[in-house]
Predict the structure.
Amino acid sequence: MHALDGIDPEQFIAGFFTSFMNDLVRGGEDVAVVVDRYHTPDIVQIADGSRMDRARLIAHARPARKHQISARWEVHEAIADGDRIAARYTLHFQNRKREGRTEVCFFGRFADDGRMRQAHMLTRLVPVKAGDAADAEAGVQAGSGQPATETSGLGQAPS
């Protein structure tokens, strides 16, 4: 049985990233311990052509503990097949320097225990426009006046 069996892929992916970020930013454990809880030792992430293995992921994650204020994953759609998930989501973030949104097309593989094994991501930074913050707070999709379809992702660490 695989960790993705019988789980809504939208909830899984939002929960995975939300839990990882919460443990990373709000926990007191070493960054490497948190990364290892959510990723296999042979993790490879490729984002916009930049490859990160475990060591580079840990180095990339260290500053998040100091600078990240908030992050929210708005999952627009996700599908799972075996150990794979494809998802399209928007990461809403705020750190000490700025706030913003990044649209992400994610293609990932997960181990049986729910840890990420491989990820390919294509991203696009979305400019924050006046009124977007008010729309987001009201739960409205930017520019549409329609309710946002969001997965808040109060997930847990992979088992």
Notes: Confidence is low (pLDDT under 50) at residues 134-157. The radius of gyration is 15 Å.
